[in-house]
Amino acid sequence: MGSARYRNGFDITLHADLLEMPKRWRKPRVVFVNSMSDLFHDQVPLEFIQRVFDTMQNCPQHTFQVLTKRTARLRAIADKLPWPKNVWMGVSVENAAVMHRIDDLRAVPAAVRFLSCEPLLGPMQDLSLESIHWVIVGGESGPHARPIDKAWVMGILRQCRQAGVPFFFKQWGGVRKDLTGRKLEGRTYDEMPYQSAAFLTACG
């Protein structure tokens, strides 16, 4: 990607020097942690994950969003990590075949638990949203993007409405996501977890 930090490509590379950076940011930020990787990858040492969480705990002015597909490891080490209220923990759930990840997420004592259904690759009926505070949905983008069906999106929206869970529709995606936009049924959905009663209860 033209950056020295990506010189190893997709090989796991730890950048310990960056752990101090959030402490220098004066203005509160929303930080998407490890946007190009997975913090709970098997090759990331537990000690490093704990250092990341310590940084997040020591920066209560920021909101940190962590997303993983490695939910078995997340669940296994959750009791070895601090869980301050500014850490939002999410799991990727792209189709019905991986809905078991939601149960792993539910076992984690995060103040905010969210699902990222992006890219959404199939319908998800009987989506269990108990103790889930936010759902993000979006289509895949790029030259080889797989299609998204409007019925899949509407199905998740209906289930969010029934459960009182905020719904965020990110994009339709496709080869030219700039052309497909992000409107659903003529409007945008930008709901956030802090707009829900469940979030207010979780955060005291």
Task: Describe the 3D structure.
There is one protein chain. The chain has one domain. 25% of the residues lie in helices and 16% in strands. The chain has six helices and six strands; from the N terminus they run βαβαβαββαβαα. The protein has a six-stranded parallel sheet. It starts with 29 loop residues before the first strand and ends with a helix. The model has no long low-confidence stretch (mean pLDDT 91). InterPro entries: DUF5131. It comes from Chloracidobacterium thermophilum (strain B).
How would the blueprint of this fold be written?
Blueprint: E1 30-33, H1 46-57, E2 63-68, H2 71-77, E3 87-92, H3 100-106, E4 112-117, E5 134-138, H4 150-163, E6 167-171, H5 177-180, H6 197-202
Parallel strand pairs: 1-2, 2-3, 3-4, 4-5, 5-6
Helix pairs in contact: 2-3
Give the gist of this structure.
The chain is of the alpha/beta class and 204 residues long. Helix content is 25%, strand content 16%. The radius of gyration is 17 Å and the shape is globular.
Distance between the termini: 42 Å
**Domain count:** 1
Unreliable stretches (pLDDT < 50, length at least 5) are none
- By secondary-structure content and strand pairing, the structural class works out as alpha/beta
Q: What is the helix content?
A: 10-25%
* Order of helical and strand elements: EHEHEHEEHEHH
Number of strands: 6
Organism: Chloracidobacterium thermophilum (strain B)
Protein name: Bacteriophage protein gp37
InterPro entries: DUF5131
